[in-house]
Amino acid sequence: MSKVVVVAGGEPCPPEFLRHQVGPGTRLVAADRGAAYALAAGVVPDEVLGDFDSLEAAVVSDLRQRGVPLHAYRPDKDQSDLELVLDHVLEGPVTELVVLCALGGRLDHLLTNAGVLLSARRHNVSCRVLSPETSLFYVVGDEPVEGTGGDWVTLLAMSDAVEGIWSSGLKYPWRGETLVRGSSLGLSNELLAEGAHIRAESGDLLVVHTRR
């Protein structure tokens, strides 16, 4: 399995949480300020992409001294740093993608990130945005949801309609129903025990898992 962890430049996550996501053989790619978060957690990124408008010169110098490849872009580019990183990562072999430090902060950035994640969905790659409290991901195949009974699990249609939704392990099960964009039907479902599974036959289904 080829796992890639991307550290974005949004709200920082706890250093121990970041370190926990980076295991042996994991490729770590940072988006701009995410490089500073990685170094603060004691982890050196394998490469860094961005316009470097939010990365201090001292951090850039440190990365260069460590021999970390830096891919610089113009500040007036048409893509966000996170989108640049995801496009770059998805050019190579990847079967599991984890994005950190991409939740919280500005609402427009959060909504944009939810859309940017569709690039992984289009490549049929499982991609999860993680924080200690929240997991955000699109359903690719049979997606597991790991947590504790009582956790909230919200389903959102990001295409016009998501058809053939099936679930196990949720308080209100899905049995092949359709969820349309703009509907609140999938809001605040709950895990029954310590895990669930969700799949959809067609459409872009976004899952928000919030721990309680």
SSE map:
Blueprint: E1 3-7, H1 15-21, E2 27-31, H2 34-40, E3 47-50, H3 57-65, E4 70-72, H4 81-89, E5 96-100, H5 107-116, H6 118-122, E6 126-130, E7 134-138, E8 143-146, E9 152-157, E10 161-168, E11 175-180, E12 189-190, E13 195-202, E14 205-210
Outline the structure in words:
- 22% of the residues lie in helices and 34% in strands.
- With 212 residues, the chain is an alpha/beta fold.
- The chain has a 10-stranded mixed beta sheet. Strands 8-13-10-11 form a 4-stranded antiparallel beta sheet, with no helix packed on it.
- The longest helix has 10 residues, at 107-116.
CA radius of gyration: 18 Å
Indicate the overall shape. elongated
**Sequence stretches where pLDDT stays below 50 over 5 or more residues:** none
Q: Which assembly state applies to the chains in this document?
A: single chain
Q: What count of helical segments does DSSP give?
A: 6
Trace the largest sheet across and list its strands.
4-3-2-1-5-6-7-14-9-12
Helical amount: 10-25%
Q: Beta-strand level of the residues, as a percent range?
A: 25-35%
Structural class: alpha/beta
Tell how many strands the DSSP assignment holds. Answer: 14
* Mean pLDDT over all positions: 91
